[in-house]
Structure prediction request, 139 residues.
Amino acid sequence: MAVVEELLRTEENGTISFGNYMLDTKAKVEDYEHGGDLYKVKTYRKLTKLEKNGMFAYESDPGTSVLRFEETEDGVSFVVEGDADVQITVGLEEDTEYSVSVGNTDIGTMKTNLSGKLSLSAELENAGEVAVRIARVGK
Prediction:
């Protein structure tokens, strides 16, 4: 398992990794600069939350470690790791359709709500980690 000991870091490929689901108490990193943006992460066993420039970007319940998190204009992709099944919410463009895949399973098309949030579940208890890919439909 590859929890993020630093809580938030930049990877060699330009993506970010964040979160530590093994912590019993809350920990956070604020004002982390990456690609001209400021990130804030709060994480522990029960919750992991990421903000970008003060705006919602990612949340999981319970907490997770997220590896190679990459946002593009067409969506987001990352690998999520944890020791329990998880509910994930990501911040995207509002009222927009996205194609979602978790692991090797295409979940189909989902639409964000008016605040741009999209929620999905991932079974991590027996898998340990899975790749998540969310891509805007029609691009």
